[in-house]
Specification:
The chain is mainly α and 114 residues long. Helices cover 51% and strands 11% of the residues. The protein is elongated and about 50 Å long. The N and C termini lie far apart (41 Å).
C-alpha cells in the first residue's frame, strides 16, 4: 500500500473501548517510533508524554472542550509538547548539535524566523 493510499484510508476514532488496553510491548514500539520522528536539522523540538494514569487522564479530560469521554476511555493518551521558545530550543538542542547543523540554523533558519 502506498503512503497516499494509507493517508486516504485513515479515519478518526469516534469512541474507545475502556475495557481494552494497549500492551506494554506496543507502547514501547510507539515510543521508539515517536523518538525517531524527523525534524529539520534533526532538532526534534518536541516532547511526547504517554499518559496511562486514570487520574491524570481524568484531569486532562476535565479541561478538554469536546473530547472528555474519548480521553477518559482511551487506554493511553499521547500529549505532544512543543518546546515553546526560541531561546529554550537553542539552549537545549543547539549546544550539542554538529557544527554543520549550528551553521545552517544560525545562517539560514534563524534569520527567516526573526
Amino acid at each position: 500500500m502506498s503512503f497516499l493510499e494509507i493517508a486516504k484510508s485513515r479515519y478518526t476514532t469516534k469512541k474507545y473501548d475502556s475495557t481494552k488496553k494497549i500492551s506494554g510491548d506496543k507502547i514501547e514500539q510507539l515510543k521508539d517510533i515517536l523518538q525517531l520522528s524527523p525534524s529539520s536539522i534533526n532538532s526534534q523540538p518536541w516532547k511526547f508524554t504517554i499518559v496511562e494514569s486514570t487520574e491524570v487522564k481524568n484531569l486532562l479530560a476535565s479541561n478538554s472542550a469536546f473530547n472528555q469521554t474519548k480521553i477518559e476511555d482511551a487506554s493511553h493518551l499521547i500529549v505532544f509538547n512543543v518546546l515553546s521558545t526560541k531561546e529554550y530550543f537553542e539552549k537545549l538542542r543547539l549546544e550539542n548539535a554538529a557544527e554543520g547543523s549550528k551553521m545552517y540554523y544560525n545562517n539560514f533558519l534563524k534569520p527567516i524566523a526573526s
